Amino acid sequence: MRFLLVDNFDSFTYNIVHYLEQCDVDVHVVTNVDVRIDSLESFDALVLSPGPGLPNEAGKLMPVVAEAMRQNKPILGVCLGMQALAIHSGDSLYNQEIVKHGLAEEIRLVKKDSLFYNDIPEVIEVGLYHSWAVELTENSPFIPTATSESGVLMSMEIAAKKVYAVQFHPESILTPTGLRMIQNFVGIVRED
């Protein structure tokens, strides 16, 4: 399988690459300024890395998301990637009162049958590196799958389209079950 990983200039990008490579995925990494939207068709799935700033400031990230959604491409969005998926779907972002940077926190699964969280406990520890958070609208296509203790949305999915997103960093050492999540996503993509 071939995955395209859009690098939003984050120091964690290659941690995600290494996790994907452990799942026998051929990973092609391109920055959000160099990515060619017409290249999406040649990949089995798209991964959106974390990164600084807001989705609309991240090179071609938003047009890539729009095209991948149009093609019904399986997608995993991490942190900024989740925020980009939310914005594309008409949801909104808000600035948290307390910036979470390099903090480990417990989150709770609110959709226990999510394939993304297969074989993962209901309460897990994750690594957080974000100041912005997602707020879903009433008409959002996304289903919440996990929240923090303070009610911040930590993950969401459109399972029928194989689109998954996490606000936390599964590739961080602060997320002990992160590799399992990546393995689950790869398994979901492989199902075709």
UniProtKB/TrEMBL annotation:
Top-level taxon in the UniProt lineage: Bacteria
Record domain Glutamine amidotransferase: where: 4-186
One Gene Ontology MF term: transferase activity
Gene Ontology BP terms: L-tryptophan biosynthetic process
Presence of keyword Ubl conjugation: no
Leading EC class: lyase
PANTHER family: MULTIFUNCTIONAL TRYPTOPHAN BIOSYNTHESIS PROTEIN, MULTIFUNCTIONAL TRYPTOPHAN BIOSYNTHESIS PROTEIN-RELATED
UniProt KW keywords: Glutamine amidotransferase, Lyase, Transferase
Cited PROSITE patterns: GATASE_TYPE_1
NCBIfam families per the UniProt record, alphabetical: trpG_papA
Biological classification of the source: Bacteria, Pseudomonadati, Bacteroidota, Flavobacteriia, Flavobacteriales
Annotated protein name in UniProt: Glutamine amidotransferase of anthranilate synthase
GO cellular component: cytosol
EC number(s) stated in the UniProt entry for this protein: 4.1.3.27
